[in-house]
Write a structure and sequence with these properties.
By secondary structure, this protein is mainly α. The protein has 25 helices and no strands. It is globular and about 85 Å long.
């Protein structure tokens, strides 16, 4: 009876039109006040605990990292790299859009950010070369959902915090399903492209592919830092989020220079001598290799008692100098200048750029564009954390009334097994995902179904990936599919047209959901092999 009253309160408040966060919090407070023996002080304790939850602290920093990556020119570089990789296949531009979404998902952890960043550029590009606007919009709406499946994912952090499982294992568990989902969408596009004879881009050679990789490299290296740092034992997922935020800010402001006072200022100028550019480029490759080496070797040798920081720096310096000299030697032969002359001529270019970066350091950090990025990130964080805090209060109320335990006993009593239980979970989440924001829905549903899953022998990490995939599909199903509204906004199409365009590819994700649900190894193979199984106390 208590559970019916509580859920009825939530449904009534939702139909009244109140925001989801308020519905969850207000229904919990009213229930505790009039129907429960629990004290109202538990409300304050629960809300305060949400702000003190260590795992949830990762969310604002991942949001800031996503904001900087979305605002800068990272998306354009990723799209160019993706086109260079798969654009020569029939339907290649559409496939490249999916690949770009996959790469951007690994940087942002947010589905709407992926749709906005990639869709704004990709949809316009596809329509220009002959794709219909509906086809392009349907692809981006679906591919954008990979933002919450490919790690790092904000939704995975929320699930891990709500049921107290490892964020690191959840991130690992999302790798294979994320690649598989993207691959299935690309395969579907290829089949459609062969049938409809969609255009293919010209293959421009491996040189173009390497150039695209170099341009996108600094953005993609964020994935290496996050994943390498976590699984190298260097920092926790929450600390990784802080590192990601700082790195993203530095790359957007000072390396790519897509925003801030240095925007539009290139590293080399047209009036720089050719041999000076060669020398400068050579040292850039050397310094870049040294920085990458220091980070990667730190992850690899963090626990080593024989390899010191000095050893790593010495090895890195030797290899970096050798790389720089080799590059300059190969290029200098074409301009008939010695290696030493080229390297010396590149020093003033370094001086000019370092001087600009020092002068623009504080104006970049506190300039108008940075303040705007931080403000937008803060708004998103407050909105999301408000929903999560109220959802955690709702979950506390459920736990205090032993509602999850009663549901577990009932389901076991009527003969549910793991197979039928997962069907019920998928149906529940697919319906709920049509009406609620993913993080709020996860915090409500996860504590209810988690005890049942443990009783039936379902792996907790496998359950988490199933729930995340359901949230993916929920973001592209009406009436509250967030990706549908975002896609409608960036294309100017009506919501009905976007829904119609997205539905054929939703069927691909539904097939993917069945595979993920009933092939646990897709989710558990990688985390088991690296970190071992999740032990639930």
């Amino acid at each position: 009876m208590e559970s019916l009253i509580l859920f009825s309160l939530v449904i009534v408040l939702l139909f009244v039109g109140l925001p989801v966060g308020i519905c969850l919090g207000l229904s919990s407070i009213l229930f505790i006040t009039f129907f429960s023996h629990d004290s109202l002080s538990s409300v304050a304790i629960s809300l305060f605990g949400a702000g003190q939850h260590y795992t949830l602290l990762a969310i604002p920093f991942f949001i800031i990292a996503s904001s900087y990556m979305s605002t800068g020119g990272v998306a354009k570089r990723l799209i160019n790299f993706a086109i260079a990789s798969v654009g020569h296949f029939r339907g290649g531009l559409a496939m490249a859009s999916v690949l770009a979404c996959m790469m951007f998902a690994a940087l942002s952890g947010s589905s709407p950010a992926t749709v906005v960043a990639i869709g704004t550029i990709a949809i316009a590009g596809m329509t220009q070369v002959g794709y219909s606007k509906e086809f392009a919009a349907g692809i981006i709406a679906n591919a954008g959902t990979l933002g919450i499946l490919i790690p790092p994912s904000i939704v995975m952090v929320v699930y891990a915090a709500s049921v107290d499982v490892s964020v690191g294992r959840m991130f690992l568990a999302g790798v294979i399903p994320g690649l598989m989902a993207g691959g299935m969408l690309m395969l579907a596009i290829y089949v459609v492209a062969r049938i409809k004879k969609l255009p293919a881009e010209e293959w421009k050679g491996f040189g173009n592919l390497i150039r695209g990789g170099k341009e996108a490299g600094w953005g993609l290296f964020l994935v290496v830092i996050i994943m390498g740092g976590i699984y190298g034992g260097v920092f926790t997922p929450t600390e990784a989020a802080v590192v990601a935020a700082v790195y993203s800010m530095f790359i957007a402001l000072f390396v790519y220079r897509d925003m801030g006072p240095l925007k539009g200022k290139t590293w080399t100028n047209d009036n720089d001598a050719p041999h000076a550019r060669v020398g400068f480029n050579g040292t850039v490759y050397g310094v870049s290799f040294f920085l990458v080496w220091e980070i990667m070797s730190f992850f690899i040798f963090a626990d080593s008692e024989t390899v010191t920081g000095g050893d790593r720096a010495l090895w890195g310096a030797i290899m970096s100098v050798a790389l720089a000299i080799f590059y300059v030697y190969k290029r200098s032969s074409k301009i008939e200048e010695s290696v030493g002359v080229c390297l010396a001529a590149g020093v003033p270019i370094w001086g000019r750029n370092l001087s600009m970066m020092l002068r623009g350091f504080f104006p970049s950090l506190f300039g108008e564009e940075s303040r705007k990025v931080m403000l937008e990130g803060t708004k998103t964080t407050i909105m999301l954390m408000f929903i999560i805090a109220n959802a955690l209060l709702f979950a506390h109320t459920l736990s205090a009334e032993r509602i999850p335990q009663m549901i577990t006993e009932w389901m076991l009593g009527v003969g549910f097994n793991w197979f039928t239980f997962l069907i019920a979970v998928n149906i529940l989440l697919l319906i709920g995902g049509q009406f609620m924001e993913p993080s709020g829905l996860l915090v409500i549903v996860a504590p209810v179904v988690f005890p049942i899953a443990m009783e039936l022998g379902v792996d907790p990490i496998h359950l988490g990936i199933i729930m995340v995939v359901n949230m993916e599909i929920g973001m592209i199903t009406p009436p509250i599919g967030l990706n549908l509204f975002v896609t409608s906004g960036i294309t100017g199409m009506s919501l009905a047209r976007v829904v119609k365009a997205a539905m054929p590819f939703v069927l691909v994700l539904m097939v993917f959901l069945v595979l993920v649900t009933y092939i646990p190894a897709l989710s558990t193979a990688l985390p088991y092999s690296i970190m071992g199984p999740e032990i639930v106390q």
